[in-house]
Amino acid sequence: MKCRASVSLYSVSSNLQDVDNMKISYSALDTFQSCPQKYKFQEIDRIRVPKSKEAVFGTLVHQTLKFLYSQEPAVPTLEEALQYFRDHWPIDAARGRPLDGSAAQTLWASEAEEAAYKAEGERMVAEYYREAFPHSSRTVAVETSFEAPIEDPASGEMHLLKGKIDRIDKHPDGTFEIVDYKTARRMPAQSSVDDDLQLSLYQLGLAERWPNLKIPKVKLTLYFLRHGLAVSTSRTAVNIQETKAEVVRLINEIKTSDFRPMPGPLCDWCGYRPICPMWRHLYEKDKVEMDPEMVRAKLREFFELKKTAADSDARLVGLRKEIGSYLDAKGLDRVFGDEGHITRLKVARSTYDLSKLKEILEPLGKWEAVLAVDSAKLKQLLSELPSPIRKKIESAKVVKSEGTSIQATRAKVKAPARAY
Predict the structure, then answer these.
(1) Where does 290-399 have alpha helices with state H?
(2) Tens-digit pLDDT profile for the chain (420 aa)?
C-alpha cells in the first residue's frame, strides 16, 4: 500500500495501558512477538494507520461468513452471500466511496489487482458455501467477544485477556467446536496448530463463558478458506495452565521491553514503516539535518572496505562508530545508501540457570545428555522435545549481557513513491 504525503495518516491518542494490571488480546500478544516496536506504536502510543489491502480483504470475507450464520432461521442462498460480498466491497476514495469512512487512500495498486482480489474473495465464499454450509451442527455464537482473567502467581496481579471468536458450534454428540477462519495462503503443519496460542486462548475464553463445559468436549479448528480445508486440535487441562503461564510470561516481557524493532518479511506489509527506526531513513533521506551525501559516502566506503578488508580493520571499526553515532543522533536503527543498508541489531548473550534446567530435564532422563552444558547438545535436545518442555527450558534462560551489532546488507531497497 502506498503511503500518502501527509502525516495525518498517523493519529495518536493517549496511552491507556495499565503497566500493572493489563487488558490485552491475542492480537496484541502476537504483534509483540513479531515486532515489539510495532506493539508500542499500536498498543501504547495508539498510532493509527490505514489497514492493508490484505486486512481489508480478510475483514470483508469474515463479515460475509458472519452474514451467513446471522440470518437464522432463514438460510441465505449462495447468490445472497455473494451479493453481500459485492455490496460491501471496499472502493478507493479516489474512485468512489471511502474505506471505512477514513481519509482518501490508495488501497489497490491497479484495477487489475482489485479485480483479482475481488474474484478470489467470491471464489472463497462460494467454495465455503458449497462445501461447509450449512452443516449438521448448531451454531451457538458468531463473532462473540470474551474476557478471561489471568493471575500472575508471582506478583498477584490480575490481567484480563480479551478476544473475539469467529464461530462456536455445538455438535449432535455434545461436543463444542471453536472455528477460526483464515484467509492466509500458507497452511501450517498439524504440530503448529497443536501449539497455536490463539486457539489456546479461545479455549480459555470459552471456559470463562461456560465454566461447567468439560475441556475434552471442545474441538479447536482453523478453517483455511483459500484451500477449503480445516485443521483441528484440542487442549487438555495441563495445556490450559501452560497457556496461562505463557500469557503471564509475555506480559512480563512486555513490561520490561525496550520495544526495539524486529525486522523481517512482515515489514513489507506494515503501515508503521515511515516512522519505524528501521525504515524511517528511507522515507526521510532528503530531510535529515546531516548532509545526506556525507552519509551515503560513509556507506559507500564501508561497503568497499567490506570487499577487501577483515572486520577488524581499523577504518571499518571507525566507520561503525561514526554510523552508530549517526543512528543515535537520529533515533534510527537502519540507514540506507546506494550500495545497500546498514542495520543495528540488539544482541543478547545468554546462559541457563542450571538448577532450573536440571529440575526440568532430570525427570525426563535427559539431564545427563547436557550435563557439560554443551550448547550444541542442548540445541539438538531442544529439537527433540515437545513444545511445553521447550517453553519451560526457555524460561530457565538467563541473559548475561546485552549489546548491539552493526550488520551490513548489500541489497538496494526501492525508495517509497512518496514519503510522508
Answers:
(1) 292-308, 314-330, 354-361, 375-384, 387-395
(2) 333 322 333 333 334 344 568 899 999 999 999 999 999 999 999 999 888 889 999 999 999 999 999 887 788 999 999 999 999 998 654 444 444 444 435 788 888 999 999 999 999 999 999 999 877 789 999 999 999 999 999 999 999 999 999 999 999 988 999 999 999 989 999 999 999 999 999 999 888 888 887 777 899 999 999 999 999 999 998 899 999 999 999 999 999 999 999 998 889 889 999 999 999 988 876 665 556 677 778 888 888 887 776 655 777 778 888 888 888 888 888 888 877 888 888 766 667 777 777 777 777 777 776 655 566 666 666 666 666 677 777 766 665 556 666 666 776 677 675 444
Beta strands in 136-237 (DSSP E): 138-151, 158-170, 176-182, 218-224, 229-233
Domain 138-256 listed as CATH 3.90.320.10: yes
Sign of CA dihedral 76, 82, 87, 88: positive
**Distance between CA atoms of residues 191 and 193, nearest Å:** 5
Neighbours of 194 (CB within 10 A): 19
Listed residue (172, 169, 168, 149) closest to 159, CA to CA? 149
- Which sequence spans correspond to the domains of the chain? 7-18+34-132, 138-256, 354-395
Is residue 68 within 8 Å of 133, Cβ to Cβ? yes
pTM of the model: 0.73
| Listed residue (357, 355, 351, 356) closest to 400, CA to CA | 351
Q: Is the peptide bond before 274 cis (omega within 30 degrees of 0)?
A: no
Query: Contact, 209 vs 146, CB < 8 A?
Result: yes
The x, y and z cell numbers of residue 351, run together, are: 546462559
Please name which of 297, 317, 322, 290 lies closest in space to residue 306, comparing C-alpha atoms: 317
The CA-atom distances, in angstroms, between 88 and each of 52, 94, 112, 262, 318 are 17, 17, 19, 35, 57
